[in-house]
Amino acid sequence: MSKPGLTSLKPGEHYTASELDSFISTTEAVLLSTNGRQLFTESDREYKVTQEFDGFFEHSQETAEKYYHEKKVYLVEKV
């Protein structure tokens, strides 16, 4: 199931933790996992991309402002 050189993830597709690790190491993106801190603990565990977003809002405590970040965000859950 190896997908070398991933440049994006597709909702509905399955990826191993190893593939997600490689993707996030080489891509400007954010991964949200329903598996908490265990996303990269088992390299062969599979995850399904359930949603994709074009960006997100973040609140800065220092400036009390809200900022929109144009960065791909993927929600993944273990299969």
Summing up helix and strand content along with how strands pair, one would put the structural category as mainly beta
- The total strand number stands at 6
- Indicate the low-confidence ranges by residue numbers: none
* Total DSSP helices: 1
What about the largest sheet? 4 strands, mixed
Note the overall shape.
elongated
Helix content: 10-25%
Within the largest sheet, what's the order of strands? Answer: 1-3-6-2
Distance between the termini: 14 Å
Task: Please state roughly what percent of the residues sit in beta strands, choosing from under 5%, 5-15%, 15-25%, 25-35%, 35-45% or over 45%.
Answer: 35-45%
Mean pLDDT: 93
Rg, rounded, reads 14 Å
Order of helices and strands: EHEEEEE
Topology diagram in text:
Elements: E1 14-16, H1 17-26, E2 29-33, E3 46-53, E4 56-59, E5 66-69, E6 72-78
Parallel strand pairs: 2-6
Antiparallel strand pairs: 1-3, 3-6, 4-5
Describe the overall structure.
By secondary structure, this protein is mainly β. The chain is built from 1 helix and 6 strands, in the order βαβββββ. The protein has one helix at 17-26; strands spanning 14-16, 29-33, 46-53, 56-59, 66-69, 72-78. It has a 4-stranded mixed sheet with strand order 1-3-6-2. β4 and β5 form a beta hairpin. The longest helix has 10 residues, at 17-26. The mean pLDDT is 93.
Provide a compact summary of the structure:
The protein contains one helix and six strands, in the order βαβββββ. The chain is mainly β.
Considering the chains and any ligands shown, give keywords for the structure.
single chain, 79 residues, mainly beta, 4-stranded mixed β-sheet, two-stranded antiparallel ribbon, 6 strands, 13% helix
